[in-house]
Write a structure and sequence with these properties.
The chain is α+β, with helices and mostly antiparallel strands and 230 residues long. 44% of the residues lie in helices and 23% in strands. A hairpin with a 6-residue loop joins strand 8 and strand 9. The protein is globular, with a radius of gyration of 33 Å.
Length: 230
């Protein structure tokens, strides 16, 4: 009987001691956590937080840009590329349209018509690489079509960095020049001139004909002078 009572007392003491240890441990951990939380953040932590905030901000900007472009465009599928600035698309009604890009001109490269100008092949290849067979966004111009029945407009593509204009690529690469032929369709004119200037600056810093601006006199008001030797 005494042994039984002693065992019960021993069990009770051990259980109480275990509870006390757990409580002490918990208090210590709480104190440690509180101490850790009160420690000032390191420079690395601050930089990481700033990077995360900047990334989230940029994500919001991209979403807003995509939403803005979506409001003024319609999704179409590119069925073929005639040249760098002339693209055949299938619209949402299933009809075929030939789209002519606004505000830019590139050297010609239509071998079947005997037109092969310097940098024309590069311009065509760039357009084909980005849009041939792709689903893109068509922004129609103020005039729906020109005298040839071509749809006037801009082609937009989307990326992880946000939407971008196909003409922007051609201008930045120095494969197109800005042309202003219609006062009703001058949207993006200022931006396009900035892209064009970037290509001019790049050509000025190079000793090789890397784009249409690299050889003096090649780009004219009437097109591209094929008598120039590269």
């Amino acid at each position: 009987m005494r042994n039984s009572q002693n065992m019960k007392k021993r069990y009770f003491w051990l259980a109480s001691a275990a509870v006390a240890i757990v409580m002490i441990s918990g208090c210590g951990q709480s104190t440690t956590n509180e101490s850790t939380q009160n420690e000032p953040k390191s420079e690395t932590d601050v930089n990481q937080n700033n990077e995360i905030e900047e990334e989230l901000t940029r994500d919001d900007e991209i979403m807003n840009e995509n939403a803005e472009i979506a409001e003024i465009t319609e999704e179409v599928t590119v069925s073929s590329v005639i040249d760098a600035t002339t693209i055949v698309v299938i619209n949402q009604e299933g009809e075929e349209e030939t789209v002519k890009l606004l505000l830019i001109e590139t050297p010609e490269n239509i071998p079947e018509e005997g037109l092969t100008e310097e940098f024309g092949t590069e311009a065509n290849n760039l357009t084909e690489m980005y849009v041939d067979g792709a689903r893109v966004l068509l922004e129609r111009g103020n005039s729906d079509s020109n005298e040839n029945g071509y749809t006037l407009g801009h082609i937009w593509l989307t990326s992880t960095e946000g939407p971008f204009n196909l003409s922007e690529l051609l201008l930045i690469r120095g494969l197109a020049k800005v042309v202003e032929t219609d006062e009703s369709n001058t949207k993006y004119l200022d931006e396009f001139r900035e892209y064009e200037q970037r290509a001019k600056d790049e050509a000025a810093e190079s000793d090789h004909p890397i784009n249409i601006w690299a050889v003096e006199g090649y780009v004219t008001d009437d097109g591209f002078d094929q008598s120039i030797e590269f």
